[in-house]
From TrEMBL, chains A, B, C, D:
Its EC number is 1.17.1.8. This is 4-hydroxy-tetrahydrodipicolinate reductase. It comes from Pseudanabaena cinerea FACHB-1277. Belongs to the DapB family. Residues 142-277 form the Dihydrodipicolinate reductase C-terminal domain. Residues 11-139 form the Dihydrodipicolinate reductase N-terminal domain. The active site is at residues 166, 170.
């Protein structure tokens, strides 16, 4: 009798949006992870080319395709529960998630821009299929810490505003992280930013967007940066600012891999990385 | 024969908005200036009290009044050309300027929020009366330097946005300085901020106000700060930011006094401190 | 039978350093506090003048003196336990605290720059006299929040540095707040900032001062700002920054008054505002 | 008679430090430049591997070697004047430059940390060989603009300090750019930063390094960022800050390629990108 060597059980992973900036970093991260195996790469560029060659880490024997359904069907055949990481555009991601769940592939989703109704529908769908799904407006632990520090500070401040800056290829504004932050502050039960004077906006939009409990969000889009968010609190004579800056998409990889590992144990939809952090 | 002692000729100065934060600093600055003499103080608080006592520098024998006309009429009687410094609210300043010019009192105006049409009307009026008038969206030399540095940088960047933060008792948004900055950049003949993707604003106003050649301005209002403006340029792999921060209204005094001295030689309306800088 | 009117019991307060920038704000704050009564003002300028007139709030019937002993002796005669707030220079404050304790006057001290040995000596002295004393490197709640946010973040980051900027009349560097911050992080039991390369300092001092567990502090001194501290954490692809900015000394008043009220119940020396916060 | 097709004359380029972060970006940039041809790649990692494969752009038929002499000798055989771009470590770059010049290969050097004496020696050597050489402490146009804006502002400010932050694999401190900036400000003939009080450094190095006319430089080293420099001016009530942030090494490529094209026309050593900018 012979026994095969026990090898690490690998999670089969499909990456949708594999040829975008975020997707390429994810491909590299999965290739390095000993407990994951890339089984599919969906993208709109470099069709037919090997995704490993495309991202510069050598052949992975996975060609880029734009046919998500076929890849999901194949992944469903794997002996281990498969996961789909999706970092595409808000306009197609809703359907991608539904397709994945239909095939029993667990979605880990990083693109924001889904409406509250869409999230609620997906939650219902995942629940019915008893299939875990994680939607993270942001995969960075630093962002979670920034949000938690803001919640702690809010007790002492009546005034707060949010600025978020992203590269100019980001489609949605405000960012999902900024909206989430404003919602977290709004859930504290405080009223923020009472008006001192009668304000006048001479140019429409100058004062940004209002979110939650009267919290303003200001969104800038410029080349030369990846993602930055500043939460600024003010009171008499002082300001307190908490700022997270992602200079490189590698800062999201720890969070992405963590979600891939955690989603397998879930049977419903979870929104926010902080829900799966230790 | 007797000769009088030659004393420094003093410019008679009236301050409108004398009891506000900016006005109080101006009163102190004029009291210290050897070539200026305070002859009137218009304000809405501390009526009847001595303005020197109100601001904490000892009696100046000038009671606070809310009757501008009476003060202007008195100033017009002075043997030297008088100047009115006005730092009140945009809603009353148009009329104040017209009144001053009517009495031959030269206005030096620091409150912004005047529309282009109002400025054009005042220019015509000052011209007809051959009376100098200076409207400065900002009295700080640092702000002028920031704007000039931005003009020099704009040649090399296609993308730029402006953030301005002010204390929460500022009535108008965007600030006059930010609008002026956007206009100065727009006059360079470049097109700024070409769109890379189809942007979607999920919350109205998130992307700020558009000014001039597609330049976004974002206005924050918080206690704990006086005035800050950031001009951020972006291109591949880098950003260049020029930021001016006023922590104290004393930073405007050098510019205010300079304008008081310069307006006497003018016969028309001038817009912008940089026009009278060496 | 007659009953006296009950009036709020007022804490007799002496302010040492009353004519400095911080001291003047404190005088104004005490004058407004219904539960405090100013009984002495020690300073080096405006000797003999009424301190209320000096700071611009009208006569308080307390002349400025430079004789601390006399003022402490008088305060000791009050029917309520008196408090001395001291915001003078590190070089004289040690003796001031000992004198106050000797007279049974409770010190609330805001000037930093005391050495660890001096603090230990004062703790012993206060203990023997069963007299409360509070030494706060910083009176701002925002600073406490910044420090607590940093402690929470440190778990996730190996790399951190501190920048502090103060007005150019601050005598000591680094600031007490920065040193305290570095000590708080060092007490977490982590090793920070392991070296990646062999560093070379071509100009001595470029890499700042080392404090605690290998944490660098960088101190800037410039006019035009009051006090700012930035704690910057870095890891792969991202940075997290927590920044507190005091634009005005009024931000310290809430903390100062809180300490005056809390010190009466103490019988020993307490170091740090966070120890008396709710 | 037949005529060969005229093809763009290509500059033969050798890259020393090809496998480091900066070097990899340079390899990609040269591969895309129509007027350049990569003829050699010197590095310490991936020896023997094709440099194009190493950086992820496909085979370039140039193997990585650590033998600079051999590569320079080969480049000297080319029919066009060759250029060597060197972005290695300060400790070996002096010798590399001398070797290149000895072979008639024009150096374009980006690593700083050379002493003034070394730069003077190299200038003499290049001069004798009538061979152009460019040493650029910084290849970014944004940095040049920052320095020029600082020079314009310095006229109006007596107080200025510099903060520079780099990734924690940078060997030298302060950065060459910061030192250059301090020198440029010092050449204006002003005295900076007169002392207001007797300063005391309780921890050695807190106040940074002194450079030129009493200008302090503060150097931070953290993962999560590439390169940032802040020049902060201060005067009564205000600060003016000019900040350049490189999030990605692609921001240096325009400057690198410009230097490669410009060095061919030189016969001596030039220090600073601004010397070859239009």
């Amino acid at each position: 009798m012979s026994y095969s060597n026990t090898t690490t059980v690998q999670i089969p992973v499909v990456v949708s949006g594999a040829t975008g900036k975020m997707g390429r970093e994810i491909i590299k991260a999965i290739a390095k992870a000993p407990d994951m195996n890339l089984v599919g790469a969906i993208g709109r560029q470099h069709l037919g080319e090997d995704i490993g060659e495309v991202v510069g880490i050598g052949e992975l024997e996975i060609p880029v395709t734009n046919n998500l359904e076929v890849v999901l069907a194949q992944a469903a055949q794997e002996s281990q529960l498969p996961v789909m990481i999706d970092v595409t555009h808000p306009s197609i991601i809703y359907d991608n998630i539904r397709s994945a769940i239909a095939y029993g592939v667990r979605p880990v989703v990083g693109t924001t821009g889904l409406t509250e109704k869409q999230i609620a529908d997906l939650a219902l769908f995942a629940d019915k299929a008893s299939t875990g799904c994680i939607i993270a407006p942001n995969f960075s632990v630093g962002v979670i810490l920034m949000q938690q520090a803001a919640i702690a500070a809010a007790r002492y401040y009546q005034h707060v505003e949010i600025i978020e800056l992203h590269h100019n290829q980001k489609a949605d504004a405000p960012s999902g992280t900024a909206i989430k932050t404003a919602q977290m502050l709004s859930e504290l039960g405080q009223a923020f930013n009472p008006a001192s004077v009668q304000e006048q906006e001479h140019l429409a939009g100058a004062r940004g967007a209002v979110c939650g409990e009267n919290i303003r969000i200001h969104s800038l889009r410029l080349p030369g940066l990846v993602a930055r968010q500043e939460i600024i609190f003010g009171s008499m004579g002082e300001t307190l600012k908490i700022e997270h800056n992602a200079s490189d998409r590698t800062c999201y990889m720890a969070g992405v891999l963590l979600c891939v590992r955690k989603v397998l144990a879930l049977k419903s939809l979870v929104y926010g990385l902080e829900k799966v952090l230790a």
